[in-house]
């Protein structure tokens, strides 16, 4: 009796944070960027927008010939602050205004997840939500953080695994979800498609 070959896993995202989390969890995804125009996607709520974007990215990559046979994972994150969906700030000025609005308050980081099985044509999707409690950085700290360039590349203009970590007082929910992908939710979505996450583990290094 021969073992079934391990299914290919494709991450439909260029996020190094998502890739890093998956690798830390024993997975070895390939990366294929979707090229989806995020500004062209709309939805009634931030949670629905995050899910729509994740589904769009996974669908586009799943349709690529080079993804045939793979399990394709699409994700997208937005920060829900007062019912508004905040993605990556357009420029430094917007990032500064965003942080001045967020400090001392709480927002909800919504990350849409979608897994496409290109063999069966089936997919499973859901959104994970994590409450983020922001600290109260000074105007000078905000200016220095924005000048670093980091907030221009991340949803909500902050991240837990970078320079803004000292400005976040705490979270309620999944830490990984804020960084970019909820591994517990990914496991559940794979299970819906009949795939155990341990089946996707890369062989341990010698």
TrEMBL record:
Keyword entries, A-Z: Cytoplasm, Hydrolase, Nucleotide metabolism
Family named by the database record: Belongs to the Maf family.
Cofactor requirements of the protein: a divalent metal cation
HAMAP family: Maf
Active site as annotated: 76
Protein name: Nucleoside triphosphate pyrophosphatase
Keyword Cytoplasm: yes
Biological processes annotated in GO: nucleotide metabolic process
Reactions this protein catalyses: a ribonucleoside 5'-triphosphate + H2O = a ribonucleoside 5'-phosphate + diphosphate + H(+); a 2'-deoxyribonucleoside 5'-triphosphate + H2O = a 2'-deoxyribonucleoside 5'-phosphate + diphosphate + H(+)
A cellular component term, taken from the record's GO annotations: cytoplasm
Keyword set includes Transport: no
Pfam families in the cross-refs: Maf
Enzyme's top EC category: hydrolase
GO molecular function, one term: nucleoside triphosphate diphosphatase activity
Organism, as annotated: Streptomyces tagetis
InterPro entries the UniProt entry points to: ITPase-like_fam, Maf-like
EC annotation from Swiss-Prot or TrEMBL: 3.6.1.9
Compartments (UniProt record): Cytoplasm
Function text: Nucleoside triphosphate pyrophosphatase. May have a dual role in cell division arrest and in preventing the incorporation of modified nucleotides into cellular nucleic acids.
């Amino acid at each position: 009796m021969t073992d079934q070959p391990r299914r290919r896993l494709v991450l439909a995202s260029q996020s190094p944070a998502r890739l890093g989390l998956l690798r830390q969890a024993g997975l070895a995804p390939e990366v294929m960027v979707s090229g989806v125009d995020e500004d062209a996607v709309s939805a009634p709520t931030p949670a629905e927008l995050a899910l729509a974007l994740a589904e769009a990215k996974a669908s586009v990559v799943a349709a690529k010939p080079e993804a045939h046979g793979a399990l394709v994972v699409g994700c997208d994150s937005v920060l829900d602050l007062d019912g508004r969906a905040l993605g990556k700030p357009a420029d430094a000025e917007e990032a500064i205004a965003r942080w001045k609005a967020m400090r001392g308050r709480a927002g909800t980081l919504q990350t849409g997840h979608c897994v496409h099985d290109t063999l069966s044509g089936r997919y499973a999707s859901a959104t994970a939500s994590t409450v983020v409690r922001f600290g109260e950085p000074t105007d000078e700290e905000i200016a220095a953080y924005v000048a670093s360039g980091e907030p221009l590349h991340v949803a909500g203009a902050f991240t837990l695994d970078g320079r803004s970590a000292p400005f976040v007082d705490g979270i309620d929910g999944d830490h990984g979800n804020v960084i970019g992908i909820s591994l517990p939710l990914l496991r559940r979505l794979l299970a819906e498609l009949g795939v155990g996450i341990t089946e996707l583990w890369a062989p341990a290094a010698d």
